[in-house]
Amino acid sequence: MRVGVARLLSVAACALWLAGCESTAQLEATGSLANAEVLGEDPKDDLSLGKKHYKEQNYGLAEKHFRRAVEAQPRAAEAWVGLAASYDRLRRFDLADRAYSQATAILGPTPEILNNEGFSFMLRGDFKTARKKLLAAKAKDPNSVFIQNNLTLLEEVSVEAKGIKSP
């Protein structure tokens, strides 16, 4: 069982980071992030530092910088998603839910946000809600590799959690 959890967490870090990268490209393309200080163009701005620390698995520092970014720019959806993902990694799911709600209020239920929320519920062991969020994400973007990978991971993890060995 520990191997399954360890695998889930390592895959989780990659999936959340990659999903964040995909979200960044979409946000910049749609112009949803208007302030250059929050866009991550300066390697020393809070959004960039949050991404850097998240990638390095320094989730406490990532949270600090993403929180500063949303305090400076409350409509910066990318910073809210980064903050939520950091809270997920710190197992502060109550705060993660609030941050995902803020991002959704700004952009609506995008496939990227639904995907990340699904992954969040997977980390909590709430596989039913995770599946619901991931299927909603897939309905909006049926060709997303990120969403499909999380659905596959969900299947593997939920089978392991039930004590059923996969072939």
The major beta sheet can be summarized as: none
Fill in the CATH topology.
Answer: Serine Threonine Protein Phosphatase 5, Tetratricopeptide repeat
Choose one word for the global shape: globular
- Low-confidence blocks of residues: 1-39
CATH C-level: Mainly Alpha
Q: What string gives the helices and strands in order?
A: HHHHHHHH
Determine Rg (CA atoms, Å).
Answer: 15 Å
Total count of strands = 0
Number of helices: 8
Structure commentary:
The longest helix is centred in the N-terminal third of the chain and has 29 residues, at 2-30. The chain has one domain (2-161): Tetratricopeptide repeat domain (Serine Threonine Protein Phosphatase 5, Tetratricopeptide repeat), CATH 1.25.40.10. α1 packs antiparallel against α4 (77-89), α2 (46-55) runs antiparallel to α3 (59-72) and α5 packs antiparallel against α6. The protein is 75% helix and 0% strand. It has 167 residues and is mainly alpha-helical. The two termini are 16 Å apart. Mean pLDDT is 81; it is low at 1-39. 44% of the residues are buried. The protein contains 8 helices and no strands.
